[in-house]
Design a protein that fits this description.
About 35% of the residues lie in helices and about 25% in strands. By secondary structure, it is α/β, with parallel strands linked by helices. Bound molecules: S-adenosylmethionine.
C-alpha cells in the first residue's frame, strides 16, 4: 500500500527525517522546523528516560501512535545508550489505514533495526519479545484511557495541536488520564498552550519547561518535583491572563454546535 493518500502525504523535515501532513487536521505530524526525529528524542524520550533512569520496568502510554516515531525513538535511544529495562508501550490511534500503510513510510536509517517491529504493528497491532511489549489500540484515545487498567510511568502526549485536536487536551481528558498513571508519571509534550497547561495544573500536575539547543521550548508535567528543569509559575501566568481557563470538553462540544 502506498503511504501517500488523500488523507496524508510524506514531507521532509529540517533534520532530514520525513514526517507527514494530515489533510484532515491540516497539520504536520511533527514540527517540520525541529525535525521529526529530533522532536521525538528531545521533547519526549530523553526527558522520560532521564526521569526514570533507576527504574527496571517502564509502562509507556504513547498518545497517539501516528507514524510511530516516539515508540521507535524509544527503542533507538535504549539501544544507543545500552539501557536494559522491561518496556511496555501502549498506543491508541484511530487511523487504522495509516497504521496499515506504515510499512511503506520512509523512516530514518537509524530505525532500520526496528522495521520488523513496525511490520508486526502495522499488520497485527502487537509486538512482543523478551524485554519489550508493544500494543496498538485502533480506536479513540479518549475511550482507551477511560477504560484502561494499566498504570503508566510515562505519557508521550503527542496529539495534534489543542486548536485542531482539542478533545485530547481538556481538563476532563487529563482527569481520565490521572486514573491510569503512577504517582511517578512524567507527561512529555511539545505544547506550550496555557489552556492545556492549566488543564494539567488543575489535575494536580506541576509544570516544567523542557528547554534545550536545537528545539523549541516544550512542557513536562509531573506530580513529583522534577530536578534540572525550570518550574512554570502557573499561578502567575493565570493571574496575568485572567481570561484564559483550562480547556474543557464543554467548550469543544459547544464550538462544534456552532459549526
Ligand atoms: C501528531 S500525530 C502523532 C504523531 C506520532 N506521535 C508520531 O510520532 O508519529 C497525531 C495522531 O493522533 C491521531 N488522533 C487524533 N485524534 C485521535 C483520537 N481521538 N484518538 C486516537 N487517535 C487520534 C491522528 O490520527 C494522528 O495519527
Amino acid at each position: 500500500m502506498a503511504f501517500n493518500t488523500d488523507k496524508h502525504t510524506m514531507v521532509e523535515s529540517e533534520d532530514g527525517s520525513f514526517t507527514a501532513y494530515s489533510t484532515q487536521f491540516q497539520e504536520h505530524y511533527h514540527s517540520t522546523r525541529d525535525g521529526a526525529l529530533h522532536e521525538s528524542l528531545y521533547k519526549h524520550v530523553i526527558p522520560a528516560f532521564e526521569h526514570h533512569k533507576d527504574k527496571d520496568e517502564l509502562n509507556i502510554l504513547d498518545i497517539c501512535f501516528g507514524l510511530g516515531f516516539n515508540t521507535l525513538a524509544t527503542l533507538y535511544y535504549m539501544r544507543e545508550e545500552g539501557i536494559i529495562k522491561k518496556v511496555r508501550i501502549f498506543s491508541p490511534e484511530f487511523d487504522g489505514e495509516l497504521i496499515a500503510s506504515l510499512k511503506d513510510f520512509h523512516y530514518p536509517e537509524i530505525f532500520a533495526p526496528f522495521l520488523p517491529i513496525i511490520e508486526a504493528l502495522s499488520t497485527k497491532q502487537v509486538y512482543e519479545d523478551e524485554n519489550l511489549y508493544i500494543e496498538l489500540y485502533i480506536g479513540d484515545a479518549r475511550d482507551y484511557i477511560a477504560s484502561c487498567d494499566e498504570r503508566f510511568d510515562v505519557v508521550y502526549q503527542d496529539a495534534f495541536s489543542p486548536a485542531t485536536n482539542p478533545l485530547l487536551w481538556t481538563k476532563e481528558y487529563f482527569a481520565d488520564m490521572t486514573k491510569c498513571v503512577s504517582d511517578e508519571v512524567i507527561i512529555t509534550t511539545y505544547s506550550m498552550a496555557l489552556k492545556t497547561r492549566i488543564a494539567l495544573y488543575e489535575n494536580g500536575f506541576n509544570l516544567y519547561i523542557n528547554r534545550g539547543e536545537g528545539y523549541r521550548d516544550a512542557t513536562l508535567a509531573s506530580k513529583m518535583s522534577l530536578q534540572g528543569y525550570e518550574k512554570v509559575d502557573i499561578k502567575h501566568k493565570m493571574s496575568c491572563n485572567p481570561d484564559v481557563h483550562a480547556l474543557r470538553d464543554a467548550d469543544v462540544i459547544s464550538a462544534e454546535d456552532v459549526l
